[in-house]
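Please produce the structure of this protein holding iron/sulfur cluster.
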Amino acid sequence: MQYVAKNVSVIGDTGFSPKVKEASGTNIDRCYQCLTCSLDCPVAFTMDYLPHQVVRLVQLGLRRKVLTSDAIWICANCETCATRCPKDVAIPRVMDTLRAMALQEKVVEKGKDIVVFHHTFLSNIRRWGRQYELSLLLQIKFKTRDFFSDLGLGLRILWQGKLKLRPPRLKDVTGVRAIFRRIDQSLARGEWT
Ligand code: SF4
Ligand code: SF4
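Below is the modeled complex.
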């Protein structure tokens, strides 16, 4: 993997970084660009900006660049970076905040595959209380109109019984839905941005 910083301008929105710090509850000023987060991130190889670069873009106030990046959507919130960061920078919380900001500011490219995945993933959890992979797979295929790119893999995991045909049954699905409702209310009050 190559860790080459992209060419970024340093003239940014000075109010952006304080806003991200406040909304995420994370002091990104502590980051001293040691790259530990990027070296340990399991999905960094698919990102346009590596985790430490996302932090740097926020510090520089390059709002548009970071809010339209793929990296903020690719982050799987696995917490590896937060666990290893020597300066206690909670990158997953920063990524959450940036995703919420990108949606609120409507800068997300319509129909972007990774965003379709996020919406579908969460709406399935809201509906079933946990993930229903077959439904997730079929919905994403229809929404992205990409029916055949990984057909072989899909058939193989179906054949191996790894895709359940029936939706999961959860006793307290209403409890899960209540969590989503609270998040909706919090977003409507603008508490994340
Ligand atoms: S591990 Fe922490 S201090 Fe190091 S670059 Fe990443 S966020 Fe910054
Ligand atoms: S939380 Fe996101 S940025 Fe951090 S290691 Fe996991 S996937 Fe990478």
